[in-house]
Amino acid sequence: MDESRISLLFAADEGYAQHTAVAMMSALLRTARPECVTTYIIDGGLSADARRKIAATAESRRSRAVFLTPPATAEDFYVSAHLSRAAYLRLAMAELLPPQVERVIYLDGDLLVRDDIGKLWTSGLGGRPLGAVPDFGIMASARTRREKAAVLGLGPREPYFNSGVLLADLAQWRGEDLGGRARALAAEHHYPHHDQDALNALFRGRWQALPLRWNVIPPVWQLFSKVLRQSELRRAALDARRDIAILHYAGGAKPWEYPLTSGFNDEYYRVLGETAYRDAPMPQPRPEKRHPLWRQRARLWLANGWQHLLS
User: Fold this and answer.
1) What's the pLDDT tens digit per position in 109-139?
2) Mean per-residue pLDDT for 292-303?
3) Which one of 93, 97, 188, 234 has the fewest CB atoms closer than 10 angstroms to its CB?
4) Would you say domain 6-310 falls under CATH 3.60.15.10?
5) Closest Cα to residue 46, out of 10, 88, 13?
6) CA-CA-CA-CA torsion for 15, 19, 23, 25, nearest 10 degrees?
7) Distance (Å, rounded) from C-alpha 102 to C-alpha 121?
8) CB neighbours of 135 closer than 8 A, spacing ≥ 6?
9) DSSP code for 216
10) How, if at all, do strands 103-107 and 6-12 pair?
11) How much is the average pLDDT of 252-280?
């Protein structure tokens, strides 16, 4: 593997085109050598204008974006809540990426990279086919723990990962048809957490835990009480919050839905201004009921207070 060449992967439909451009640009802005980064986009229904803007965003940093045509089977997978079927497209990464790409970093479109992605790229996997970050939102909840025990057979202290940031050894994926096996599981089951559950089922006992700072989700960023109550998770969350490498807006409160707000989504707005979507109308609230801004601000205010008190 050429460690000087970094391969990033996103899966996007038209609804996430802008946010994918922002996530990609956040990585390129932080990377020491953006010209060594190739970003692959699995095209889940992008318009010609969206492809043009994503490509122009990459080119503005002397990088490039390559669009991949997905398999048609994604339309058969189970979806619920705010999830798009594009989420399942990552399961085909090994087949869709060029054979010379032996390692890839997959990133969701609702995140911001805050550190040099090259550090994640060179992380060791201990011979395992996948690296991922434990999902404290799942692991800290007694209810979802019971759910994962029933659905996946996970033990009470067995780790579970978030699929929004993945480091994949594609040689192993191809050799064992891991993508095909993950898709078969996803097609067979109506998993509550969709493709993420399918990946956890397939890679149970075969994934490398990456540092929590590489996928800081709201239960960690906002220090949910269920995380604070468990000493081991609390210590790890406090450490990750001090030095966030990837901030992942997983869940229902997305940064583009709210007006510019310091400490919550100002970084999204700043990076948006560096992309070809800089003139997009903002904010972009969803028509359905969403979490009020005051709640996001209150949660962060409390989390910062706990950080100061417990540090």
Assistant:
1) 999 999 999 999 999 999 999 999 999 999 9
2) 96
3) 188
4) no
5) 13
6) 120
7) 12
8) 160, 161, 162, 196, 217
9) B
10) parallel
11) 97
* pLDDT for 65 beyond 70: yes
Buried b (16+ CB within 10 A) or exposed e, 59-90: eebebebeebebeeebeebbbeeeebbbbbbb
- Residues with Cβ within 8 Å of residue 243, at least 6 apart in sequence: 115, 213
Looking at residue 122, what DSSP letter applies? Answer: T
d(CA 144, CA 159) in angstroms, rounded, equals: 12
Take residue 22 and report the two structure tokens written for it. 């922002």
Verdict on whether the full-model pTM lies above 0.85: yes
Give the residue carrying structure tokens 């990088």: 63
What are residue 41's phi and psi, to 5 degrees?
-120, 115
pLDDT of residue 118: 97
Q: Which helix (H) or strand (E) holds 164?
A: strand 161-169
